[in-house]
Amino acid sequence: MSTAIITGITGQDGSYLAELLLKKGYQVVGVARRSSTVNNERIKHILDDITVVQGDLQDQGSLLSLLEEYKPSEVYNLAAQSFVPTSWNQPALTGDVTALGVTRLLEAIRFVNPKIRFYQASSSEMFGKVLEVPQREETPFYPRSPYGVAKVYGHWITVNYRESFDMFATSGILFNHESPRRGLEFVTRKISDTVACIKLGRAKELRLGNLEAQRDWGFAGDYVQAMWLMLQQDHPDNYVIGTGETHAVREFCEIAFSHVDLDYKKYVVQDEKFYRPAEVDLLISDPTKARTALKWEPAVSFKELVTMMVDSDLARHNKE
Ligand code: NAP
Ligand code: F7E
Q1: Where are the domains of the chain?
Q2: In this structure, which ligand is nearest to the CA of 124?
């Protein structure tokens, strides 16, 4: 039985990837940082099937000892300070976790067993103020937030360890992917959750920032399949993963509200508080390489994603 270690197991992607690897017969070890309250909401249904160990990307020793103890054949580095607005308030922490944390993990792998296959969760935020439309593996980076800058570092240190030490270090450049398990502060989940609250009479309005920002949004469950496929290839590489479609925040609102027979124009209020110091306006992927080399295709459409999220939040609020 192969063992896979997932950092960021308590996050959105960690939970979907753990489910996928369990189905494929892996022993799954999830790394979670210590907190004063239990944070297992997204993985509580699989807790009996996985091993959760304490570890932190800010602590080199914890990474070394968990690799020594569990002897994985694959490591998926999904842990990060991943919320873009927070990266302006906590830029040094974002750099330490999201950038230097990658080096700490790669160093641990190099010392313990350089044959371990490594996946780095890189991001379309690296393209930022885009220099080419659509964006592909060769598109130059122009990050627009401390988060994006940290991810560029994480990407290049992954490439550098591949080239310097001949390690199987792969970088997946993933465009936005969402789900009912998305954190509540991200725009898609903020919309789906507030739409459910408005429909049930528990909220009156939805305050948002830039409605014209465009993203290439897919379903997280589809994207973790691409992560696994990347580590099954003969050679490490970089891959862009996205749908190849882009939609505005306004369009997400339109579909989400109309799904519950409401008109978004009556409820959405634009609020400067949610504008960013520097915006990423138009992200759209060219996933040709993933389609041809990995044979990967997203299964869930944009409309299915929006309605899945609204339905899930409605069901959750109804239950409460
Ligand atoms: P997420 O839900 O925010 O999860 C992030 C995970 O990282 C959480 O488990 C968090 O733990 C953990 N973490 C934070 N700081 C840590 C530290 N110092 N040490 C160990 N763990 C730490 O993010 P996600 O959406 O699943 O995304 C997974 C990865 O893909 C992230 O690296 C993200 O930057 C990247 N990415 C995401 C997208 C997307 O659209 N979702 C697109 C491209 C790239 P707590 O639960 O304790 O906070
Ligand atoms: O913003 C606009 C906002 O916070 C999307 C992370 O997973 O994907 C995610 O980063 C857009 C932005 O995600 C609100 O200005 C409008 O243009 O949902 P978001 P993100 O910044 O794209 C990338 C690929 C990652 O790697 C990141 O880890 O929506 N927007 N009004 C708003 N955004 C938020 N959060 N809240 C609003 O009220």
Answers
A1: 3-177+218-241, 181-216+246-283+299-319
A2: 2
DSSP label of 282: B
User: What element of type H or E holds 188?
Assistant: helix 187-199
CA distance 278 to 186: 17
CB of 97 shorter than 6 A to ligand 1: yes
Minimal-distance CA residue to ligand 2 atom 21: 84
Model pTM? Answer: 0.98
- For residue range 138-174, what is the model confidence (pLDDT) as tens digits? 999 999 999 999 999 999 999 999 999 999 999 999 9
- 235 CA → ligand 2 middle, Å: 32
Quickly count: other Cβ atoms within 10 Å of residue 93's Cβ.
15
CATH class (in words) of the domain with range 3-177+218-241: alpha beta
Catalytic residue, from 19, 74, 125, 178: name it.
125
| 14-34: burial string, b at 16+ Cβ within 10 Å, e else | bbbbbbbbeeeebbbbbbbbe
Ligand 2 neighbourhood includes 155 CB (under 6 angstroms): no
Active site residue 147: yes
Mean pLDDT of the chain: 98
* pLDDT, tens only, 241-277: 999 999 999 999 999 999 999 999 999 999 999 999 9
Q: What is the assigned CATH class of domain 181-216+246-283+299-319?
A: alpha beta
Distance (angstroms) between ligand 1 centre and the Cα of 210 equals: 23
Distance CA 88, CA 275 (A): 12
Q: Which atom of ligand 1 is nearest to the CA of 57?
A: 19
How many CB atoms within 10 Å of residue 195? 28
